Amino acid sequence: GSGKSTSLAALIDYRNRNASGHIITIEDPVEFIHRHKKSIVNQREVGVDTRSFHAALKNTLRQAPDVILIGEIR
């Protein structure tokens, strides 16, 4: 690949190590597991934790996270 997933994981990890807050990822499938560091990280997998990207994003916006990562949408 071209490194898109690795780049996104690095950005999330940087934010997680350097700032407090709430990070939510929506992916299909989850590619990197992020542990809580300075931020709380909730990872949702489409088809496992939620039925669709649309449903996950709608629910995520109600939680007012500081960062939302949306994985590749096909």
UniProtKB/TrEMBL annotation:
- Superkingdom of origin: Bacteria
* One Gene Ontology term of the molecular function aspect: ATP hydrolysis activity
Residue ranges of the Bacterial type II secretion system protein E domain? 1-74
Query: Which ranges form a coiled coil?
Result: none
Identify one Pfam family in the record. T2SSE
Q: Which InterPro entries match?
A: P-loop_NTPase, T2SS/T4SS_dom, T4SS_GSP_E_ATPase
Its family remark reads: Belongs to the GSP E family.
Q: What is this protein called?
A: Type IV pilus retraction ATPase PilT
Organism, as annotated: Pseudomonas syringae pv. aceris
